[in-house]
5-carboxymethyl-2-hydroxymuconate isomerase
Amino acid sequence: MPHLTLEYTANLALDPAAALAAINAAAFDSGLFGESDIKSRALRLADFRTGIEATERAYAHVRIALLGGRTPGERKELADAVLAALTAVLAAPPGHELQLSVETVDLDRASYAKAVVHG
Amino acid sequence: MPHLTLEYTANLALDPAAALAAINAAAFDSGLFGESDIKSRALRLADFRTGIEATERAYAHVRIALLGGRTPGERKELADAVLAALTAVLAAPPGHELQLSVETVDLDRASYAKAVVHG
Amino acid sequence: MPHLTLEYTANLALDPAAALAAINAAAFDSGLFGESDIKSRALRLADFRTGIEATERAYAHVRIALLGGRTPGERKELADAVLAALTAVLAAPPGHELQLSVETVDLDRASYAKAVVHG
């Protein structure tokens, strides 16, 4: 951990490699995590919908799953930093409303299982 | 929020745009959310498995992530309404058992970060 | 439930069908679930990043979502069994560090909605 998942709607011009580099750097700079523990992925959403009106909209969302034990303040600072990193690499398409959001979620520490293998 | 994620196995004949319109409408009709706050995506599962037997099976699942503070009754009504909407747009393939499910999960309100940008 | 989600980075040589069969069997052997209730999917991550350094890395992660009421010991045994199953079907690419992890998460039982349809 942490596991970061970036979802972005397909109407956004986003470079996933650059976006993941940016959010990983933000997570690392928080000082909360070991460098190699930060694992992220980007998912392009081909099928998406915001609301029920036929308005031009886009969204990007990051879910940060981390082991329990962080303070509320640490979680909020982390989410704000990742949101800032995401905002810096994304622009709303012309005429669109772009919603950006970041959530943090606790992983269950007691049952978390992990192994590292070297090839 | 809310963030809705529809997953469906690739052996289902589902129109993702119609399905998302249906579940967004059900979420909006609950009266719990602002119209533009309802953000959904559909993920087609090319690689899936139900159980361990070689039976013809399919499933669709919706995860509804919402900010804390809803009552258990509100969450149950919302899940039931989304399940009804999903059921209305899906049919089991001939000879298949189709499982439909809806979960609700609380987002951590204290750390949730959001921004809106206009293009 | 349970819903199992296997994510694996695209630099891994993994047979998703074999991997899902292995983790479903591990879940079934736990004795905690009905056979047909075990629903899994595999997601290949084309866009991923571990950490901030330019090192060759890979990861695979399983999220097990199950209805509340399992003991901590049951959850830990389940996660360990699924991790063992995953380890058995995966090898680290030459020169790579491969991180494997398994989490369990409680679904909200009170609002969970489900239906079964036969085609």
Notes: The two ends of chain B are 21 Å apart (CA to CA). The beta strands of chain B are 3-9, 39-45, 47-50, 57-67, 97-107, 113-118. Residues 72-89 of chain B form the longest helix (18 residues).
